[in-house]
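Thread: quick sanity check before group meeting

JM: Hey all, I'm pulling together slides for Thursday and realized we never actually wrote out the predicted structure for the chain we discussed last week. Dropping the sequence here so it's in one place. If anyone has concerns about the input, flag it before I start.
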Amino acid sequence: MGILTIQAMRSLDTDGLWALAAISAGVSVLGYWLAGAAGRWLTVDQPPVLLAAPPSGPARRPRWARLLLGLAEAVLTVGVVLGLWAGLLAAFDLSSFFAKGPADVWDWLVTHARAAEHRAEIGAALLETVRWVVPGYLAGLALGAGLAAVFELSPAVRRTATPIAVALRCVPIVAIAPLLVGALGRGAFGTIVIVALMTFFPTLVACAQGLRQAPGQVLDLFASYDVPRLRTLWLAQLPAMLPALFAAARLAVPSAVLGATVAEWLATGTGIGYLMSQAGGNNVYGTLWAATVVLTVVAVLGYGLVTAVERAVLARYAPEQVRW
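JM (edit): ok, ran it. Output follows.
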């Protein structure tokens, strides 16, 4: 399917591209429903306790201790990644012409005679990408969480819209990116829509599951006082959804970056995705590897930022979900 999709794109076979997208959507919808049925059949445990007082346990570590532990974990992770990177290149004896190691990337960005030009080129392309990743990412999160709330209020809407949502997400990004950019234009809006689509569906699924994690006793209490459905959603179910929302938000960071770079590579001709495409095509592998490393660092920093926001929010609204 992937090869056929690329061939259809290269030959400008729009009908074939749409047909492949439709087939992919159908197969993915079927897989989604089968996975859901298996999950309902296999899941017998009660959900974790939510909306409760924090459990008693060891005292929270001092701030300095938490910062020191986080720094040690970060240094250890970076060391392991760099060691694996250099070790794999050496183990497979790959040509240094196209396989660049950590030292090569450092030289390209820091010690090379034209390092300043390299940093400026990658930095400008990265800013072009980030300025569209952020609004698309936030729009996808908001749309996914909002639609999950609508599904909870209206099962009929959920039954009608879920197959459409699955179909939108399951079409391969390499197929849908050129189609969306062709329909919406090569400007910012098309890229934002693609990033939002990459973020939307995981958020929808996670938040829909999170809304159902509100304890039955809490919902029974609201029902006994005849609390309106919308108010019950706001006061009981949305706080219970927060852990699922932030889990989806963390996982959506690399997906959003991937969606933006693929859109730039295939369609828009701007940003770091396009720069990487051009560098690979012109055999400028120093730029390709350096841009890949920079993009990875940005995704990791985004993941860490979402984690920090999650801890701050959960400490206030769902403290039983915070792990010290």
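AS: nice. The chain has a mean pLDDT of 82. The domain at 96-321 is CATH 1.10.3720.10 (MetI-like fold).
JM: adding both to the slides.
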